[in-house]
Amino acid sequence: MIAVKVVDRQGQCATFSAESGQRLLQAGLASGVGLPHECATGTCGSCKATVVKGDVRRLWPEAPGAKALRSANETLLCQSAADVPVELSLRANFIPPYEPAPRETKGELSLVRELTSEVALFSIALRDPIVWQPGQFVLVSGLGIEGARGYSMTREVADPSRIDLLIRKDPSGRFSTALFDDLGRSHEVAVFGSLGRATFSCDEGRPFIAMAGGSGIAGILAILNHAMNGGHFSKHQSKLFFGLRDAASSYLLDEISAAVAASQNNLAVTVAFSNEACSPEFAARYPNINFVDGFVHDVVRAAMQSGAVPADTNPIFFVAGPPVMVNATMRMLVTECKVSPAEIRYDRFG
């Protein structure tokens, strides 16, 4: 085992051990150390650290998050491994550790249902169950492809050894391309989790406003499922804004419409099509959903400014989707709508 020492911006120190070649972010989180991170897959750059002593192997030097690195001795912890003892310093502070700490297990990934040519529901039968909260995600790796991808759980199921995921085929992504090219069989995968702070519990006793772009809806579905099972909508009116390209590429609208009905209309759903207007014929198929044109963050801005989201209801804001959508929505909420960043919980995947 390799000894790893990390010192944060305030001078707080933590130590843990990593196997040779193990990703340092995963080793630290599994040891109960609160290493700062967001995506944990190399996209965001939030887990950057400076190598003070020793050396690390950069597993993906071209990772998008590497744009956040400012010197040759900086590295992304999620894309670094050590073969010798190493000391690292953080520009950020440690964050509260996960309880329980995330860990790795194996599982069998298989198709549940194709939703479109590029989006499908999958399940993983885990060898060992993991504990997770609505809104969290896991890192999945396998199919002979290096590195992990983050996918959010979509719903609570009775079997704790099963998790359900929504996966979108990314033309530039080797893992999802390989998966969609071979949907007919199951695949053994490694699963690390659970991760993510954009979680929800009915015990919080507050309404929520959720904004999702594309497959970012996955974690929001788990929040809706938990809210439904926990009787949330009998006490609190909440809202969902879901951004899609167009009607032809839409998915999960039947399930979302059914959730509105089950909530006795205490869940209000708006679907925004960014590429083309929704036809009256298509909208008539989903009378429980309000269809509008435009980017989802623009639609939310209009709703906030019109008073459709009363400020005195003290809602929790959830934002999930690709980085461009999440960044635009966060800016709008904080700078234009004066929402406190402390009230926004988000997932930003690439």
UniProtKB/TrEMBL annotation:
Protein name: FAD/NAD(P)-dependent oxidoreductase
Source organism superkingdom: Bacteria
Domain FAD-binding FR-type: 102-201
Single GO MF annotation: oxidoreductase activity
SUPFAM superfamilies for the chain: 2Fe-2S ferredoxin-like (SSF54292), Ferredoxin reductase-like, C-terminal NADP-linked domain (SSF52343), Riboflavin synthase domain-like (SSF63380)
Organism of origin: Afipia carboxidovorans (strain ATCC 49405 / DSM 1227 / KCTC 32145 / OM5)
Domain spans labelled 2Fe-2S ferredoxin-type: 1-94
